[in-house]
Specification:
It is found in: Cell membrane. It comes from Brevibacterium antiquum. Pfam families: FecCD. This protein has 14 helices and no strands. With about 350 residues, it is mainly α. The protein starts with a helix and ends in a 7-residue tail after the last helix. The chain has a single domain, classed as ABC transporter involved in vitamin B12 uptake, BtuC, CATH 1.10.3470.
Length: about 350
């Protein structure tokens, strides 16, 4: 009876009006469009809408239009990174059935960071195209390690054990990062600036670098969505419905790690986006991953773009890196989730 009631409860949550979901999706896309325009208008020097539209049309005749042209690749990159982190968080929470799962909390970001710092220190890496493969390998190894440690014991990979394993792993890897960077004064500034997490000074090369990984990761995640819906019922019921639980987890996790590694490589370890966005999306459109994953992409892009704009406003004429803003937004949200009584599973 308990299993049957669980199935019925989950199925009821999956059923939500398509019109409602579509309305929220269109609203989120409209918000992203507005934020992209504002992102190109706001900076150390504000520009008008006419100059923004002219710059998007390819003109850079005046100073203001040239300023907008410089901001366009930054805006596109922050949208891509926000989408990647939003999808990654949604998939990780679905794979682990852990409401605390997030690339930062599970230590995946830190693993990618350590790999990139090692690449900077010992292999002479200095550009995003060099960082990206190191970041993906570091993220993958860390994800496997955290899940293996969290799976030890009778109950397997419970949300609490995964969160603790991720926190402990992130702390240990942070120490290794310090051990690599501190003796190397020649790379300290480069490594420190990258670790804060930011999108300033980027070019279209950074956008074209992350875009293929974003597309592949999105396709893998969307393909895995029905399997993630089955996993929400529990492993035994998912297997009974014909799902290969292990394969579903591995494929889904591969998409999430690919997205997280690529985003970390081009923008640094930006935290909490993958934690906050899926929870907010579930409140609006439900838990069906076929909708949750694309909606997390759009709202993740909106959150990171808004954070980037806010960072420019707060510290004008300088700016706060976007990684600092997302931490300020995400930390209280994380505390609120931890304080909830039903934190053991989704």
């Amino acid at each position: 009876m308990t299993s049957q009631s669980t199935v019925e409860s989950t199925a009821a949550k999956l059923r939500r009006s398509t019109h409602v979901r579509l309305a929220w999706m269109l609203a989120a896309l409209a918000v992203v469009a507005v934020l992209m325009i504002l992102s190109t208008m706001i900076g150390s020097r504000n520009v008008g809408l006419d100059d923004v539209l002219a710059a998007y049309g390819g003109s850079a005749a005046g100073f203001d239009q040239a300023a907008v042209a410089k901001r366009i690749p930054r805006t596109l990159l922050v949208v891509c990174v926000g989408a990647a982190l939003g999808i990654s968080g949604a998939v990780m929470q679905g794979v682990t059935r852990n409401p605390l799962a997030d690339p930062g909390i599970l230590g995946v970001n830190t693993g990618a960071s350590l790999a990139v710092v090692i690449g900077i220190a010992f292999f002479g890496l200095s550009t995003a195209d060099g960082y990206i493969w190191f970041a993906i390998v570091g993220a993958t190894l860390t994800a496997v390690f955290v899940y293996a440690v969290g799976s030890l014991g009778r109950q397997g990979a419970t949300p609490l054990k995964l969160a603790l394993a991720g926190a402990a792993t992130a702390a240990a890897l942070s120490s290794f990062i310090s051990a690599v960077v501190l003796p190397r004064g020649d790379i300290a500034d480069l490594a420190r600036d990258w670790q804060i997490g930011g999108v300033g000074g980027v070019t279209f090369d950074s956008v074209t670098l992350i875009l293929p990984f974003l597309i592949v990761g999105l396709l893998i995640s969307v393909y895995s969505a029905p399997g993630l819906n089955a996993l929400a019922l529990g492993d035994e019921l998912a297997a009974g419905l014909g799902q290969h639980v292990g394969t579903t987890r591995m494929v889904s996790a591969a998409g999430a790690v690919l997205l997280c590694g690529a985003a970390t490589a081009v923008a640094g370890p930006i935290g909490f986006v993958g934690l906050v966005i899926p929870h907010a999306c579930r409140l609006l459109i439900g838990i069906d991953h076929r909708w949750l994953i694309p909606f997390s992409a759009v709202t993740g892009a909106a959150l990171l773009t808004a954070s980037d704009i806010l960072g420019r406003i707060i510290a004008r004429p300088a700016e706060l890196d976007v990684g600092i803003l997302t931490a300020l937004i995400g930390a209280p949200f994380f505390i609120a989730i931890v304080r909830r009584q039903k934190v053991r599973s989704l």
